[in-house]
Amino acid sequence: MKTDTHETDLYILPESEQERAAICSFLVKQKWNYTLERSDVKGQEWYGKTYIEVPFGDVLRTNVEALQVDPAPLTAYRVTYANGYQAEISMAAGVSIKDAEDYFVGRRFDVGVHPAENMQKAVNVELIY
Fold first, then answer.
1. Are residues 55 and 17 in the same domain?
2. Residue range(s) defining the domain that contains residue 85
3. What is the pLDDT of residues 38-67, one digit of tens each?
4. Domain count for the chain
5. Distance from first CA to last CA of the chain, Å, rounded?
6. Top-confidence range, 49-53, 74-78, 120-124
7. CATH number reported for the structural domain that contains residue 6 in this entry
8. pTM of the full predicted structure?
């Protein structure tokens, strides 16, 4: 993973979906807010890539860099949104259905296709495997 800071924000660029899921699971368990963003700054090293933005800087950097990714298989959940759209989402090994429900249900997510946004509230989560 790569990390960067700007003012009081920490930016994390995971190198894999598994690493991203592990980091997001860690942040959720810590009850720390974050957003998934996509870089649209041409010429930037992270251009076109999805990164995690955490609204506090160096305090978290040490903890995230020390995070060990469990080589166990990922879990996967099907998230249903208010408009009927469904997404299959891989999560870190050990993320329970309750963890996934606590994270997704009731929150709004962008299910649109870049560059158009389509913010929808997650209404249901079901285990795929």
1. yes
2. 75-127
3. 988 888 888 999 999 988 755 556 667 777
4. 2
5. 26
6. 120-124
7. 3.30.70
8. 0.45
